[in-house]
Amino acid sequence: MPAPFYALDEVDMFLDGNNVGRIATMMSELSGGNAQSIIVSLRKPMIERADRIVGVTIRADKSTYVTGVQNNG
After folding, report:
1. 8 A C-beta contact, residue 51 and residue 28
2. Better-scored residue on pLDDT, 19 or 3
3. I need a surface site. Which of 1, 5, 40, 43 has the fewest CB within 10 A?
4. Which residues touch 30 (CB under 8 Å, ≥6 apart)?
5. pTM of this prediction?
6. What does the alpha-carbon distance between residue 32 and residue 67 come to, in Å, rounded to a whole number?
7. Nearest Cα residue to 55 out of 22, 64, 7
8. For residues 6 and 36, is the Cβ–Cβ distance under 8 A?
């Protein structure tokens, strides 16, 4: 039985593109559509498979800017 929530921080950092894609697919399959996942990643294959993408940057005045988009691809 899958957990209702997963939080992963850069689990794909040292993997090649093929294995990053495999992890993204595995996360989707294991959740069965009944779980939410928050995955911190800078890797393109992981980001391309996301349903929603949230970006966080620091402005020059040290404030935080958060933006998000829904991935239709």
Report:
1. no
2. 19
3. 1
4. 2
5. 0.71
6. 27
7. 64
8. yes
Q: Pseudo-torsion of CA 70, 6, 8, 50, nearest 10°?
A: -20
Q: State how far the Cα of 25 lies from the Cα of 37, in Å rounded to an integer.
A: 12
Per DSSP, what are the bridge partners of residue 54? 68
CB under 8 Å to 35, separation ≥6 — which residues?
A: 2, 3, 4, 5, 6
Q: How far is CA 1 from CA 7, 30, 32, 37, in A?
A: 17, 9, 10, 15
Looking at residue 70, its amino acid is Q
Span 14-60, pLDDT tens digits: 999 889 989 888 887 876 667 788 889 988 888 888 888 899 999 99
Q: Given the structure tokens 């998000």, which residue do they identify?
A: 68
**Quick one: which of 37, 42, 36 has its CA closest to 15?**
42
Element (H, E) at 58: strand 52-58
